[in-house]
Design brief:
This protein is an alpha+beta fold. The protein has two domains: 79 residues, Alpha-Beta Plaits, CATH 3.30.70.580; 75 residues, Alpha-L RNA-binding motif (Alpha-Beta Plaits, 2-Layer Sandwich). The longest helix is centred in the middle third of the chain and has 9 residues. The protein is globular, with a radius of gyration of 16 Å. The mean pLDDT is 94.
Length: 171
């Protein structure tokens, strides 16, 4: 069983939290299923996350060799986003744990961009933006593979259809 969930800010991407914070699994009614988050979103980020009890699917979606694309919308502080900043993101940036793979990057507004990555390093989008001299004020995952966040509102979820699961398994 797999669900698409719109994780709100302040909710952690774990099944259980030792600090008593609300978890993404807690957004769904407890029906005795053991669901696990696929991928991570830090507590300060919102957006699309998947919950599943299918370990093989979870591995396929998170293992780096499958290069599943994930798209994020980020609102950035500082000066407007220019072509030089976009070019650096598109070429990959140097982080403390190595250079990132090239990203798809497009400007949505003076201070907003959409970034698509195929890796899943810890806080990667925030660190990539920091590497180009921009602080992330707001971050939302809008796409995970072929799945889109819309029309789910924060805290809402839906069960994936078989056709969507087939698409995910084919990635």
């Amino acid at each position: 069983m797999t669900y698409a969930v719109h994780k709100p800010v302040g909710v952690v991407s774990t099944a259980q939290d030792t600090h008593g914070r609300p978890t993404v699994v807690g957004l769904l009614p407890d029906e005795g299923l053991r669901l696990y988050p696929v991928g991570r979103l830090d507590a300060d980020s919102s957006g699309l996350i998947l919950l599943t009890n299918d370990g093989e699917l979870a591995n396929r979606l998170t293992h780096p060799r499958f290069e599943v694309p994930k798209s994020y919308r980020a609102k950035l502080a500082g000066k407007p986003i220019d072509e030089a900043a976009l070019r650096r993101l598109r070429e990959g940036v140097e982080l403390e744990d190595g250079r990132t793979a090239p990203a798809e990057a497009r400007r949505l507004g003076e201070h907003e961009l959409e970034l698509t990555i195929h890796e899943g390093r810890n806080r990667q989008v925030r660190r990539m933006c920091s590497a180009i001299g921009r602080e992330v004020l707001e971050l939302r995952r809008v796409r995970f593979g072929p799945l889109r966040l819309d029309p789910l509102a924060a805290g809402e979820y839906r069960r994936l259809e078989q056709s969507e699961l087939d698409l995910l398994r084919a990635l």
